[in-house]
Amino acid sequence: MAESDATAAGVEPVIGLEIHAQLLTDTKIFCGCRTRFGAAPNVNVCPVCLGLPGALPVLNRRAVELAVRAGLALGCTIQRRSIFARKNYFYPDLPKGYQISQYEHPLATDGELVYVADDGPHAVRIIRVHLEEDAGKSLHTAISDGDRHTQLDFNRSGVPLIEIVTHPDLRAPREAADFFARLRVILLAIGVNDGNMEEGSLRCDANVSVRPAGESALGVKVEVKNINSFRFLQRALAHELVRQTELLGAGGHVVQETRLWDEVAGRTVSMRSKEEAHDYRYFPDPDLPPVEVSDTWIADVRATLPELPEARKQRFIRDYGLPAADAAQIAETEELARFFEDTAASAGNPRAASNWVMGEVTRRLKVEGAGIEAVGVTPAALGGLIRLIDTGVINRSAAKDVFERMYGSGREAGDIVRAEGLSQIGDEGELGDVVTRVIAEHQDAVARFRRGNEGSLGFLVGQVMRATRGRANPRMTNELLRRMLTDREAAPRTDE
Hints:
By secondary structure, the chain is an alpha+beta fold. Helices cover about 40% and strands about 20% of the residues.
């Protein structure tokens, strides 16, 4: 059964996400230990993050500020008073036997992420954004005799997290993966999270259920835990929807449980029965006072928020006339957007600026494995190159050669064109001589064109470009070739 078959089978998917994002702080949420990823196991630890007796937590102000930042970016109401609680459960990599989190009184509530996707507008409601500490990490290994061992690394224990919990507003695996990707872009744009899913600094739990199409009551949900890839999320949800649909179709019942995604096997596997809130025995942490966030602090944080990617995308569509896909790609980061806008201003041609930024500029950066901050041409210089194309001084083919010579050299496009003799040939007499010679040298292609093979014209255009080192005016070349090939007297005779 395919992903779309769930709807065809008369059931509706219902999906909500819980996204865990590590905050970009230098130290942990309740102590001064470093948060750097990749350190040797168990070096970034202290009595506080190990939960040793008598060690008292002290809240990291920067973590609160970043959480407020995320809440505002997601349209949430920031609560002036929030409370940390102890979430009690046993797991080997949880050194205290409980996790410090927020439950009844979270930092931010009632948000919404509104965006326009390929299939139209979407609005996903945010229930809450709350602060908590991360757990340690269990490393499972096998030795030669088949025994399995688990090693514990507590470096991650106490790293500050926000958990972003959505309403069950998503209706398809692809939609859920797209939402997760858009949320990642926002967190990167506001400087809250590094977006590194491979290192586990951004991961997702998905709650998924099915219900008869047209009904409003929710079905029994299953949680798919710890997904760190958009593709894995989509595949895990698609499999789980099929599993639940087939189970119900056979007269069975969905069990509320936590499952894991096995990418190798391509299926979810049961991990444990799903706990309810009362199972965790939440109660306010006696060592931590309530978090007080003033109106002034909220206003100060709000004032530092950049333009968000979706708003920037819509502005690019509205003000520059860019296609939605182009606008979305360029608007993804503030640095790329600024480079585009500066280039567009210099060139006076936003569409051409967009094409060059998404084309040659992005290509060079991929080759070098670099970001836009390392680009080897300034927006002003690129704008100057585009102006040479728009005024007919050079054509697009020659412009690519000029761009390569400009890149990293600091030279201006006009200087390169003059020094290398790359100006476009726009004189009909000069270009006509080249066209006449190309026709004479490629009689087979001429004959094919006259028999109705339009593709042969492209071949002949390419030969003219080759003969002129890409300097021929493409429009004039096409016109001259077509005129000469259809005027038997003007063109050299063929062997027909």
